[in-house]
Automatic annotation (TrEMBL):
Residues 144-299 form the Tim44-like domain. GO terms for cellular component: mitochondrion; ribonucleoprotein complex; ribosome. Keywords: Mitochondrion, Ribonucleoprotein, Ribosomal protein, Transit peptide. This is Large ribosomal subunit protein mL45.
Length: 303
């Protein structure tokens, strides 16, 4: 009976004919639709050495799957794919007051579907139970959203390797600016809401330590994209969208903190610490002068 249902679904799916299917033979990751609360106030990266319990966590691995799954027929149709794969949000109040030009330069102020690892599921449960089919459908939708966002980003000249190089440089720059307490330069590298959170973070750190040394040991051990999402800001124009890419960085870092007298009070710059960070970068796709900025960070639970 189950086999017959799967064969029927496969036949229906083939009639749908999704154009983006060529992108969808990718490694399945575990995702979750959690509610965004605000840019992380828990210090990360330059602040990662402050919280060693977050470091060197194992990677979440998924099972390779073909997203041309028979379950896709249950939830995808040509008429609703665009609505399904992106979200709409109101432009920030400042942007609505200042006009369309400013809209392109201001962040929507939210993280759409923040990344979170999902519990692993056995092959038999995934493919031979109703709960497994439901989970597979959810996973496919999440992967389709990422594939759709990346395909739209490619139209603007996106290159994965070029973006990774830019992201690593931005990662180093932001951590260095935070270590130096340079709030003026930091403003240009992050979104408005993220800037407010980082200012608070720097203030809290300066109340404990007078000076901080931070260094990233190159090259980066690993960098990968965990999620891609589109956020529309104009219901009447589907091209007015922001894209958010969630990246995972695995790096070795050196850290040391000093009091007002120059005495080391935390860390040891002679030692390398393995740090895993998840950062979210954002960019407008409808403004010619737009550039990538940090819009959020995702804290990780201790194992």
């Amino acid at each position: 009976m189950a086999l017959r249902s799967l064969q029927t679904l496969r036949a229906v799916y083939r009639t749908v004919g999704i154009r983006e299917s060529s992108y969808l033979l990718i490694r399945s990751r575990s995702y979750s639709n959690t509610i965004f609360r605000a840019p992380e106030l828990i210090p990360r990266s330059i602040s990662s050495p402050f919280h060693m319990s977050h470091n060197a966590l194992p990677f979440t691995r998924g099972n390779t799957m073909i997203l041309r799954s028979t379950m896709a027929a249950e939830f995808l149709t040509v008429s609703n794919i665009t609505r399904l794969l992106s979200t709409q949000t109101k432009a920030p109040p400042q942007a609505r007051q200042m006009g369309a030009l400013k809209v392109s330069m201001l962040s929507p102020g939210i993280i759409y579907e923040p990344y979170a690892p999902r519990e692993p599921m056995s092959f038999w449960k995934r493919w031979f139970t109703r709960s497994g089919w439901k989970r597979t459908k959810e996973d496919i939708i999440l992967e389709l959203k990422s594939a759709y966002a990346i395909s739209k980003l490619r139209k603007s000249g996106y290159s994965k390797q070029k973006f990774y190089n830019e992201a690593v440089n931005l990662y180093k720059e932001i951590n260095t600016l935070m270590a130096n307490g340079d709030k003026t330069s930091l403003r240009k590298a992050v979104t408005e809401k993220m800037y407010s959170a980082l200012k608070t973070e720097i203030k809290q750190r300066e109340s404990m330590w007078s000076k901080v040394y931070w260094e990233m040991v190159e090259p980066v051990i690993k960098i990968r994209t965990l999620r891609a999402r589109l956020i529309g800001v104009d219901r009447n124009d589907v091209n007015k969208v922001f894209i958010q890419l969630t990246l995972e960085f695995l790096t070795k870092q050196k850290f040391e903190a000093y009091d007002s007298g120059g005495t080391v009070v935390a860390g040891d710059k002679s030692k390398e610490v393995l740090v895993r960070d998840i950062w979210i970068f954002e960019k407008s796709l409808f403004h010619s002068g737009a550039y990538w900025r940090l819009c959020g960070r995702i804290s990780q639970k201790s194992p």
